[in-house]
Amino acid sequence: MKLKLSFVALAALAMSAAHAGTPLTPAQAAAAAQAGNAIYVSGSSALRFSMAAGFLQACDTSTVAVFGNGSGAVAAGNNVRAYACTLASNIAPTGGATAFTQGTNVVFSKYDQGGSINGVQPLVLNTALSYLNFGACTSTGLVRSGNFDLTQMDYACSQGNLVVPQMGVSDVEAATLQNTKNLPAGTNAVSTSNLTGGVHSVAMGAVAVNLVLYRALQVAQGLAQDDAPAHAPSLPISFLTTVETGNASPLTGTGWNELIPSDGSGSATDSANQSVLFCSRTNGSGTKAMHNAFLLGTPCTGVGATPVGGTGASQTALIEAGNGDFFYQLNSSTGNVVSCLAAANTSTVVTTDTGTSLHQNWAVGMIGAEQSPFNAAGTTDAGWRLVAVSGAYPSRANAQIGAYPMTFENYMYWPKSLSGAPAAFAKWLQSNAVNPAALQAASLVDPGTGQGILSSTAIDITQYTAPASNFVAKVTRNGSSCAPQVIVQ
């Protein structure tokens, strides 16, 4: 039966939106929430579409309405989303109580702002977050056709619905996320003894560079200048560690001139005259915690190295560090990181604290592999690319078999005191929803999620055949981001 249901779910997600039902209206979403048929999740932005795909498996796709806090139908700019639908099947965890029954109108809301730290702290501190106000929505005018695109918004809504999230997700386990060097300024670690949960899914930390640098690296490494993953240039772990700590410098041969020989021209193509621009996330980001654990041993090896920027707040201006030729920008979202990368494609000249003028045309950023510079149709190019890490490209195939080193388990938490339908939904969302069928369906409209997110090793792979089985993780860190990857299937 589980095998049959997984394929039914896949077919339901992939089918055309143009059939029997009609999308729920904001008024119907508000009524469902008022009736108690609403779920509020917070935390990791990397999992925004994989979680949505999991929920939509239970929906009559023709009734789904997608809401966002942006200004239009496109996904960019939306970091609070909601999905309302009439259920086509019951929602219940394996062997558990039913949360919601078939035919019920249900709203699933996901709060991405603040990243992974909001998958833990608000649950313990009972902090209300500002979810969408369904009484303040306008239609985007979106006309749906073909595969249901969960990344597109039917309605743009304002925020203002203050709710304490019932459950949260984090890119790493709470203990790693709450290490002093991973916490935002002014945020204290909290006791998580009153939370329960477990592994939710698997994701990859990744490294990206702006397109101008990507092509320069390809030339330096003798690679074809195209976008095939097989021709992706590679950055060594040792160099990335130097960047993460803010110590990369062409003055000491540890800047871009470590990887690309200087041509002596002093131009924007001369690696010795190029500042290192690091587009980073702020503390509280699970993506940043992944990179800190892998590259710096923070907090895995005792105290661990301190990432550049420490616990500083988000910055809109560049900050100079190191030897005067290293600049970094702390970004509150992955969207801001990739904007930082794209901006570097337009060459500028920066003046260091010592009065030296340097070109700033090459940038590197730490993001998650669930991001893609292209849309599903391949008609957009955001001006950056993922690179290999010491020869390993962040592909789903490499992550499956442990061939990519920055693969981590995502965790989901909820209060032990949670009861009734929300508690049953939480268990279902943690252990059943983000399955290979949902991820394969999501990949049809969002190539990033399809590439960068895998189901957890707890999924029984024998339930699935290709292509869905290609989304099953075969590696685990056994509950600790500091533990080595182990192949289990």
Main β-sheet description:
16 strands, mixed
Helix count, DSSP H or I runs of 4 or more residues? 13
**How far apart lie the N and C ends?**
22 Å
Beta content comes to 15-25%
**Average of pLDDT:** 90
Helix percentage range: 10-25%
Please, how many domains? 2
Shape: globular
Radius of gyration: 22 Å
**Helix-strand category:** alpha/beta
Number-wise, the strands total 20
pLDDT < 50 runs, ≥5 residues = 1-19
Q: Can you describe this structure?
A:
With 489 residues, the chain is α/β, with parallel strands linked by helices. It is built from 13 helices and 20 strands. The strands form three sheets. It has a 16-stranded mixed sheet that branches. α7 packs across α8. The chain starts with a helix and ends with a strand. The model is unreliable at 1-19 (pLDDT under 50).
